[in-house]
Specification:
With about 375 residues, the chain is α/β, with parallel strands linked by helices. Helix content is about 40%, strand content about 20%. The chain folds into two domains: about 110 residues; about 240 residues, 3-Layer(aba) Sandwich (Rossmann fold). Helix 3 links the parallel strand 3 and strand 4.
Length: about 375
């Protein structure tokens, strides 16, 4: 079993908080019951301690199941029919560095690139015969979505892609620079099918970035390896090449401020020269989106000019099977069962509000339920015959 969305581990803080709330609630109610038993021996308590524990167990188990579901557990394989007997691969390489947060392209460079790539993926899915994947890079690079014909999986990985998501990946190739094109190209080359008849020249790369890195010898060597393998790189430049923009950041209170270095605001602009050189070396093309949306149809036409790989089988492609439903549906059933179980006793002799039934966990955390206590008139003489 593997997890499709390990970055959602942060949601386990909510799960642990909910389980802790259940434990505190049941402890306080059991404490209230013990006071009732001591003050009113022989009387039937208005609520059942066994049902309190059962309800807490159901809620805690449901929260744990939801926590597992949000991690995207997958195991086993499923076969997907190919849309065409011919197929071509496209690996999208997306820059998620801080400079992509500049707002010279509304709402910012990264969000604009995501929207354009989502539209491009829908067009490729409509035409059929494509596999698509996603690599994110900044100071490191990682494969967020391997080559697949499951475009929904690609769209989900695209929505979740960010610098924070990238840094959570244990398999990311790290470096000491802000935007490392050489690392991105090396990770992309490793993720593509090799040229042993399985893929190679039947694959293209779509690099979306604002440049931000000198075209050093390592990046040139990586681009030449793409050229030797017959893989074209289509580079898309995002951002204003003429006017530098500050990089917005958010503090813990959500207030916006600008990235600074040695007391001065950092200003960045689109640097298209490295992207142009990569496209030239690989016989690809440079698409200057800059501050406008990516021209989707011209980009698709460029991608479809190359030959496709003929499939040897009519076949099918194996994909991991998402199993989150196996945890989400039982969690829903447990929550429904918890709401149906009453903690009050139907024949209890009490008018206390706790006898109404239903979930009282939030109230129980704040204060224990009021239970009737027998009050005796002090004027009554005890022991008088």
């Amino acid at each position: 079993m593997h997890l499709a969305f390990p970055q959602n581990i942060i949601w386990w803080l909510v799960v642990l908080g909910g389980v802790a709330a259940c434990v505190v609630g049941v402890i306080r109610q059991l404490h209230a019951l013990s006071l009732f038993w001591r003050s009113s021996p022989g009387r039937v308590p208005p609520i059942s301690s066994q049902r309190l524990v059962l309800k807490a167990t159901l809620i805690g188990t449901a929260l744990v199941l939801v926590g597992i579901a949000v991690l995207g557990p997958c195991w086993g394989k499923k076969t997907l029919p190919r849309a065409s007997s011919q197929v071509r691969d496209l690996l999208v390489v997306l820059d998620v560095s801080r400079s992509m947060l500049c707002e010279d392209v509304p709402p910012n460079r990264l969000d604009r690139a995501k929207n354009d790539l989502a539209t491009l993926a829908k067009e490729l899915e409509r035409r059929g015969g494509w596999r698509i994947g996603l690599v994110a890079f900044a100071d490191r690079a990682a494969v967020l979505c391997p080559l697949t014909m499951d475009f929904d999986h690609f769209q989900e990985a695209l929505r979740e892609s960010s610098l924070e998501t990238l840094r959570l990946r244990a398999d990311a190739m790290a470096s000491d620079r802000g935007t490392n094109l050489a690392s991105a190209l090396a990770r992309t080359h490793a993720a593509l099918p090799k040229s042993d008849g399985e893929g190679g020249p039947f694959a293209d790369v779509l690099l979306v970035s604002d440049g931000g890195d000198d075209f050093d010898p390592a990046a040139r060597k990586a681009a030449e390896e793409f050229a030797q393998a017959g893989i074209r790189v289509f580079a898309v430049g995002v951002g204003d090449p003429h006017r530098a923009s500050p990089i917005p950041l958010r503090d813990e209170a959500g207030r916006k401020h600008w990235l600074t270095h040695q007391g001065e605001t950092v200003l960045v602009r689109l640097q298209p020269d490295p992207l142009r050189e990569i496209a030239r070396l690989t016989s690809g093309a440079y698409l200057a989106a800059e501050t406008t949306p990516l021209p989707i149809l011209p980009a698709v036409e460029l991608l479809e000019t190359a030959p496709r790989r003929q499939l040897e089988s009519p076949g099918v492609v194996a994909e991991p099977i998402a199993r989150y439903r196996w945890f989400a549906f039982p969690a829903l059933l447990l929550l429904l069962a918890e709401g149906w179980i009453r903690t009050s006793r139907r024949n209890a002799d009490t008018n206390d509000e706790a006898a109404i039934g239903g979930s009282r966990w939030l109230v129980a955390i704040i204060r224990p339920p009021k239970l009737p206590v027998e009050v005796r008139d002090p004027r009554t003489k005890v022991g008088r015959k």
